[in-house]
């Protein structure tokens, strides 16, 4: 039983970072209707910037991390404003291809600049400390990830409920033309959505960086976050969080009880099973297309 | 200008004398190429030909049927491993093992096509992506497939012809490639191809006029998987050594890149895209060896970047090509060709 609880807790901890990535993906999917393959790299570049600030320039944490988040926000805005918005007659495949292109450029740049060495980022909290609750261990870093994820989810909820920008964002996602007629600058809103999504992803990246910093570090969380978002339905923020936690927990349970080797492919099996039952995910309404 | 007056005119392989002329020139060049070129360039052309096979197959799925696949490296791997294992364990001759591996992949493609019937857009993208990654992971853990160590290709003997060098293999590969491209073109020109295109343009409308969606969508996956697997089986003999890491997600993305750069829904575009990007891929991997430009990159890397990461410039270039193509010419090389053709036909007006 203790073993089981331990696995579930580790799953929840890992699921938190997946959930942040998934949230970012859903935000962008709702704004631009494109599965955002650049999500991982939008977090990767800021993480490396922060790594550089901390190690080469000896900037203190309380400046480096906020600066990184602001950079992430601007990067997200730029990718939407500078590249995606310029697409001619976009269709889904075209937009996917553009995000893949952006991803390749950012990944290539980061690997060129920093090489493929595996490093760890200095962080205020050591990644080896752990807290013991009853018989269950959880590392302080995981605990922090969990808390930060919950705080971000809560603040997103409040943002969409009570802030003017958040409500405008929801309106834009529901019906763009109607929102534009109400005086909402829908293009600007879309850009801000990209910025926020990039920031949320960047937080996940920063929380993973104390363990490992290398150019491919965001691949796995991005794919798992994407899987979580698809399980949850791609258009629902709570769905993405729920899906990401499911992916995290099932992955750990599978790794513990069935086979450690195939742990990383479980997420895709979950997707296939869920999509066979509900083709648009668990939380999204299935729209039947009309001719 | 390209008006078709009857059906037989549409299905003809050679639409005009000019096409016959240029095809003849191309075949002649392909025939004399290995005798005049250096061995390395024969290897490069072999590599490009394999890309052509896979990309033409992928275009049937993505460009003609409108189903995105980001997991073609999975089928490619099945073809490569399937061919080698059938030859070494079951002692099949090469010419039997290659299509057998293709048929195995086609069956798996059919199975993948079943859940894909209900999926579209991002859901299909992540499902196929997952398929590609899962396949590679599973292959890397099965003992018969050499696990992480990979497999060596056996000696290739067809009849009494012992194929050892890249040049020998060239004469096997090029006819196969040409045959596969012509078959793909013929598929598109028949009832099956028109069904694919109608599914891409409007699947519900297609089903109301009697196109069986289940049959044709899974068929598209199966055909495309067959092409990828044949390409994979040949690739194993170009490299002579395969390991699971080769068939990464980036390989799937590279194939998709080639389709898009060549032009969605165009066989000739796919050939052009595969050749162009296949060549660039090989050249950019050893970017530091390119004369002049390589030295400049080396200097730049040493002062501002890292030298070990310089091969990643390939990613940057591919990404830039993708974005530029999508922003300015969504139909790729084929679109440019059509546009310039129209311009010159109507010139000077």
Can you tag this structure with a few keywords?
heterodimer; A: 291 residues; mainly alpha; two-stranded antiparallel sheet; 11 helices; 2 strands; 70% helix; globular; B: 349 residues; ABC transporter involved in vitamin B12 uptake, BtuC; two-stranded antiparallel ribbon
Q: What series of H and E elements makes up the topology of chain A?
A: HHHHEEHHHHHHH
CATH topology of chain B, which one?
Answer: ABC transporter involved in vitamin B12 uptake, BtuC
Reading side by side through the largest sheet of chain B, how are the strands ordered?
A: 1-4
Low-confidence runs of chain A (pLDDT<50, min 5 residues)? none
Cα end-to-end separation of chain B: 15 Å
Give the termini separation of chain A: 53 Å
Name the helix and strand elements of chain B from N-terminus to C-terminus, one letter apiece. Answer: HHHHHHEEEHHHHEHHHHH
| Helix vs. strand class of chain A | mainly alpha
Beta content of chain A comes to under 5%
Helical content of chain A stands at: over 70%
Q: What would you report as the Rg of chain B, rounded to the nearest angstrom?
A: 21 Å
